[in-house]
Amino acid sequence: MSFWQHNLEENVSRQPWTAQGFNKVLLDSARAGAAGVMAHIIRFAPQRVVYMSCNPMTLARDSQALLTSGYQLERVTMLDMFPHTGHLESMVLFSRK
Ligand SMILES: C[S@@+](CC[C@H](N)C(=O)[O-])C[C@H]1O[C@@H](n2cnc3c(N)ncnc32)[C@H](O)[C@@H]1O
Fold first, then answer.
1. Per its record, what are the GO molecular function terms (predicted)?
2. 62 labelled binding-site residue
3. Cα of 51 to ligand 1 centre, how many Å?
4. Is residue 58 part of a domain?
């Protein structure tokens, strides 16, 4: 197994790990979301995207980018991982139509 680190808001298409191609993305964004990353994910056209988020507001915002780019929402699960706080962990599965 290999681990790579890169700023995903930049064009990653020349990164070595993109050469082999991939058809699934697991995105675990920071609370601010991943607005600057969504266009890059969409360009790779993965079959499935799992988006994990601890901020439903930014999750909803970033989901729009996928939903308007040919993805459909397959499943949503919410986990109360931070009881007695206003924070909520969500996992959303999107698939390309
Ligand atoms: C919710 S945490 C995910 C933690 C991860 N699942 C783990 O177990 O280490 C969000 C992560 O996104 C990273 N991040 C934020 N902006 C990024 C960016 N533009 N490119 C790459 N990673 C970014 C943060 O550094 C942080 O580690």
1. rRNA (uridine-C5-)-methyltransferase activity
2. no
3. 12
4. yes
Could you tell me the pTM of the whole model? 0.93
CA of 31 to the centre of ligand 1 (A): 9
Ligand 1, atom 6, residue with closest C-alpha: 28
- Residue located nearest, by CA, to atom 8 of ligand 1: 28
Binding-site residues, ligand 1, Cβ < 6 A: 7-9, 28-30
Per-residue pLDDT reduced to its tens digit, 28-72: 999 999 999 999 999 999 999 999 999 999 999 999 999 999 999
Domain count, the chain: 1
Whether 2 maps to a domain, the answer reads no
In a domain, 14, yes or no: no
| Assembly ipTM | 0.93
Print the SS3 string covering the chain: CCCCCCCCCCCCCCCHHHCCCCCEEEEECCCCCCCCCHHHHHHHCCCEEEEEECCHHHHHHHHHHHHCCCEEEEEEEEECCCCCCCCCEEEEEEEEC
